[in-house]
Design goal:
By secondary structure, the protein is α+β, with helices and mostly antiparallel strands. 33% of the residues lie in helices and 25% in strands. Strands 4, 5, 19, 20, 21 and 22 form a six-stranded antiparallel sheet that branches. The chain is globular, with a radius of gyration of 22 Å. The model has no long low-confidence stretch (mean pLDDT 94).
Length: 427
Amino acid sequence: MINPQFQIDRERVYSQVPYFFPDLYDVEYALLDIHKQTHADIHEIRVAAEKVGAIFVKVASLLRDLDDETLLQLGYPKEALTYCRIKTIPQEYIIGRLDFVVSNSDIKLLEFNSDTPTFIKETFHANDFVCNHFGLQNPNNESTDILRREMRKAVTASWKQLNRLGTPKIVFTSHGDNIEDMWTTRFLQEHLDLPSEYVSLDELKILTEPVDEDGIVIEPGVFTPSGERIDILYRQTYPIEHLVNDIDPTTNENIGQELIKLIVENKVMVINPPSAFLLQSKAVQALIWGLHEDDKYFTKDEHTIISRYFLPTYLEPDVFLKTNQPYVRKPSFGREGDTVEIFNGLGETINAEPQRTYSETLPVYQAFHPLPIATVQTTTGEKQQHLMYGCFLLNNKAGAIGIRAGSAITNNLSYFLPVGLEESLKG
């Protein structure tokens, strides 16, 4: 039985975080608990993140040169192939999140969400309030400054690419009825420190052909509800693989593909840029591992990085079955553990996420590396939970770190577990 004071304290701490979501799906999400790490631990994770990120950046140009058939074999939707190849700004991505298994000094990459990562509000903002509650220093203190700087650089580069006069019209967008998506997006908007507007996705107006209104020709573009042309659209949480099939229920038009067309034609700039989606497929890890095994493309130092931080990943499970090695099957484009399945060395299922949304998506097969287990404090008592670390990359600069605590397969019911520095107790 939890002391009522604990629940009062949790409510008090998280009520101090503006526009936060301590509970999701009507259940506890943000824990009033903290996982202590040393400076060395945090530094090692960030070093690993930057080295891994550099590998992904290197393969981006290779991916852009692949033919359509090969890109399709890597799981990219055919409707997005042209979009995949666009290089709009120097940065390959602005905000990405690497998910790691961290066990002692062993750090292994599970996946890279380079295009639409969430967990931003939690790690960059809410983490600090929990650290203050426990009297610990926040390891993410400087991350918000990096975030702000890289966002501004991306906006500047995007505006330069458009080559328009005046001041850019910047719009942040997300599903307005999803509290997590909306407040994550609004948090980013607040930290850009440039004039901008928030518009829900369903309120964006898309014009794909010129129209004549009262003798004035309006060129194609994306517009706000009041009719202002949008120059830069900040789309943090809406996946491209969903967008390409987005149908307007009132007109039955494929508005997703219409938006893609405008981006391809340089009528509007989008952040994260198209190249971030190119790196999003988990099949990219299979490509990286294949090049590593073939001793091609990478330098000696890069091969060392791949050996140390990457897990063997393939488009077929044959290697694991031949060696009786446990493995994981996951969709090349998937989220929150949906459709993930863990197998033993005989190919028998030992754990599976019941949600099967991505069962038609190309699967990849990755060596199974179990998540470490720790005791966490919840409002219903102590629980043994598996820990997965997320480290943000901001244009390949390591940023905020946080932990998801949940089952062996991290899903959308996993907890947010804050992180604090154990050597930095405040007086």
